[in-house]
Amino acid sequence: AGGYDFAAIQERWLPVWERLRPFEAGDGDGTRPRKYVLDMFPYPSGDLHMGHAEAFCFGDVLARYWRGRGYDVLHPIGWDSFGLPAENAAIKRGVDPREWTYANIAQQKASFRLYAPSFDWSRVLHTSDPEYYRWNQWLFLKMYEKGLAYRKASWVNWDPVDQTVLANEQVLPDGTSERSGAMVVKKKLTQWYFRITDYADRLLDDLDRLEGQWPAKVLNMQRNWIGRSRGAEVEFEIEGREEKVPVFTTRPDTLHGATFMVVAPDSDLAAELAAGASADVRMQFQAYLEQTQKQTEIERQNADREKTGVFLDHFAVNPVNGERIPVWASDYVLADYGHGAIMAVPAHDQRDLDFARRFELPVRVVVDVRDADGERLPDPAESGVATAGDGVLINSGELDGLDKAAAIAKAIEVLEARGTGRAATTYRLRDWLISRQRYWGTPIPILHGADGSMIPVAQSALPVELPASEGLDLKPKGSSPLGAATEWATVVDPESGETWTRDPDTMDTFVDSSWYYLRFLSATDDTQAFDPELARRWGPVDQYAGGVEHAILHLLYSRFVTKVLHDLGYLDFEEPFTALLNQGMVLQDGAKMSKSKGNLVEFASELQEHGADALRVTLAFAGPPEDDIDWADVSVQGSAKFLARAWRVADDVEHAGAPVGSGFADGDRELRAHTHHLLADAPGLVEAYKFNVVVARLMDQVNVTRKAIDSGCGAADPAVRESAEAIAVILSLFAPYAAEDMWAKLGHEPTVALAEWPAADPALLVEEEITLVVQVDGKVRDRLALPASVTAEEAEAAARASEAVQRSVGEREIVNVVVRVPKIVSIVTR
Ligand code: ANZ
Question: Which of 121, 370, 718, 765 is 20 to 30 A removed from 140 (C-alpha atoms)?
């Protein structure tokens, strides 16, 4: 026999599972209900770490759960294998990024093998395979056809260390690059964009559908990122200039208080106005522009900074009152928000007020804002505090007497009637910059002519394969290394003899991960990106699991691409991920683990030392999955002990000789009731992600069963077998090896992973009742039906609460209560 030996058990069952391949999904044809359970796929930056162990543990609990509930479950795995880290590591070590990447993938696959998440390995994909990325190119061309992929010159975020552009989403709040940590600067470049802003409203509004299914925090981050602002667009004439200048404002009600205009120094408008000014102004402006370009967007928006600016020697005309107002350039106005120009209302906007006070510009109050006592707030020009609240309009012609909301509506009406403005909505969301000047990514399938014309590569000529890196200088230098691959880059039209040059840029890897969940449905299909019929069957992903670090970028881009594919007729759904679980981080002594901090807990060595089951149980038991886990606070040994205790229950049943299939009905009722409560509660707990509670309940069930074996009904009682089987089935979500071994000891064929969950018997869930007799001064006054488990306190309270008892006691004083549960409560009065 021998005791519980995790290593021997792993060795016993891994080959069996690899032979049986129980985790390959069916064809989703509808004979069974379906669940698509997806974990965010890993980036192959080295071996798996504890963060992976945690993420893939939780996703696996859910995949195994739904399988046990009779669902056809799709739970695939792949690698997000393009991207900068591979390339930077390759440069550092002087190896081919391809070699480095695929060696890491091989290592991660080997680690996954023993950890044994229930992946469907028949669908594995790597985004750096031409078989995968040709469909990125397909997607790009579909977007290009629809006008959703376009090229433009604009100010972009430039990472001076990695020498590449960054999406807005990749710039951290402190203005540094998420990748290199370098301070991001602005650079004017021609780049490729996806027109995600066309989808801003849908991306925002459809978040409502995910309410309750996605973490509230993620929904909020998405909402703020899209940042919808409603207001108006107002057109100002500028003296000496033909076209009018539109500004975006959320407060068209304050138009009469606009005393100057401010344009972003780095906007085209500012450059044009400065060009028409005196030499002196031109020089001042040029210096100011240079200073502005050194600032990050975050610095520019910092309200505490002293305001700076340059008068542009131009005047605008306020469309509602014909007033001449000066036009200034200042860095607090951003070029790529709204129209890059504002009407400044210093009385009611703090930034404008700070600017007005600094440059002695007029301040005019147009909203009478009062405090709680009805006192008018001090004049902003004197107090230095702008009054942004609600109030009644004054000094505003036809708007006088209206409150803020009514005045906004009226102002828009007036502007529309005069043709000088209209209701407008602005978003914080910018178009998605998808081109990168780096090697290790998907080539953009566009050809450039000598005359500047562009043609898409024909779908039939895909994939445009990445050339070998040999001989290419991969070091960041601001232009793509692919441009130097002359042979690769030059394409001669065989008919016309014309020469075209391939676009040298590669795609942002977030393009790869925006639709990978669809490729798993058709991972080996070389005729299409995915089969729309399979997408109808399996999509959208029912359960997505992964880190909160992807709360904005990846999820937003996936949602966008899903909507585009929906509009192109490939999908019948518009949201890719129905439910989302964000797991916390694995910490060590309260800090994020890292090699440099020297607090790294190695997944490989933990796995070696404790085995897969004990690690998984530890992760699941540590707390709610959304919370961080401090590895210093958990006990893997405790988990291992629990597993040994659970395993011994099955071992005892095996040796007691009670046969498989013996009628449970004759078993010990108390233990049976305990088992069935577990069976009844476990599904709801798993579905609510309360994995730690399920593990605690399993621990309790093991203890109760142990007691029944040692000092109760004994191991041969059918109730003990019933309990052991329930433990094995539920434990298989967390400890697949131990559960499989228990299942075999209980006389069943592999695999427990496909065993049906026993149903809870409602008859065993109702508690047994007893009848409690209540006497007052020796006479029976009431009979109460109470649960058999009633305590003395509860029995006394129920007796005192009885109406019949209260009537009998009346005004007399209770001097003594004798309680003998579960039979009698005797009350004595005086
Ligand atoms: C006049 C006004 C009066 C404004 C007032 C506010 C208060 P959100 O809510 O973020 O959308 N604005 C417009 N474009 C800008 C740009 N490119 N850079 C910096 N600021 C810009 O903010 C909209 C408000 O921010 C707009 O409404 C405009 O100032 C300013 F009592 O117009 B407001």
Answer: 121
> Is residue 514 classed as helix, strand or coil in its secondary structure?
helix
pLDDT digits (tens, 9 = 90+) for 312-341: 999 999 999 999 999 999 999 999 899 999
- pLDDT at residue 82 greater than cutoff 80: yes
> Is there a contact between 64 and 101 (Cβ–Cβ < 8 Å)?
no
Ligand 1 geometric centre to CA of 344 (Å): 8
pLDDT the model gives residue 395:
97
Nearest CA to ligand 1 atom 31: 348
Model confidence over 189-220: pLDDT tens digits? 899 999 999 999 999 999 999 999 999 999 99
Report how far ligand 1's centroid is from the alpha carbon of 191 (Å). Answer: 28
Q: Cα separation of 760 and 697, whole Å?
A: 15
3-state SS of 741-772 is HHHHHCCCCCCHHHCCCCCCCHHHHCCCEEEE
State which ligand 1 atom lies nearest to the alpha carbon of 426: 11
pLDDT reading at 595 higher than 80 = no
Count of beta carbons in the 10 Å neighbourhood of residue 448: 16
Look up residue 377 and give its DSSP letter: P
ipTM score of complex: 0.98
- Choosing from 334, 349, 387 the residue with most ligand 1 atoms within 8 A of its CB, the one to mutate for a pocket test is 349
Q: What is the mean pLDDT of residues 517-546?
A: 97
> What is the 3-class SS of 275-303, one letter each residue?
HCCCHHHHHHHHHHHHHHHCCCHHHHHCC
* pLDDT given for residue 478 in this prediction: 75
Q: State the distance from the centre of ligand 1 to the C-alpha of 141, rounded, in angstroms.
A: 37
Q: 519 near 134, Cβ under 8 Å?
A: no
As to burial, measured by CB atoms within 10 angstroms (0-12 exposed, 13-18 middle, 19+ buried), residue 133 is buried
Q: What DSSP designation does 484 have? A: G
Ligand 1 within 6 A of 429 CB? no
Pocket probe for ligand 1: among 229, 302, 337, 369, the residue whose CB has the most ligand atoms within 8 Å is 337
Under 8 Å between Cβ of 137 and 145: no
Q: Which of 83, 1, 80 is nearest to 39 (CA)?
A: 80
552 HSE (CA, 13 A, CB side): 16
Ligand 1 neighbourhood includes 350 CB (under 6 angstroms): no
Helix, strand, coil tally for the chain in percent (to 5): 45, 20, 35
Whether 592 has a binding-site annotation, put simply, is: no
- Is the pLDDT confidence value at 662 over 70? no
pTM: 0.88
Write phi, then psi, for 432 (nearest 5 degrees).
-85, 115
Kindly report the number of other CB atoms within 10 A of residue 363's CB atom: 21
**Predicted confidence (pLDDT) per residue in 385-410, tens digit:** 999 999 999 999 999 999 999 999 99
Q: Is the CB of 251 under 6 A from ligand 1?
A: yes
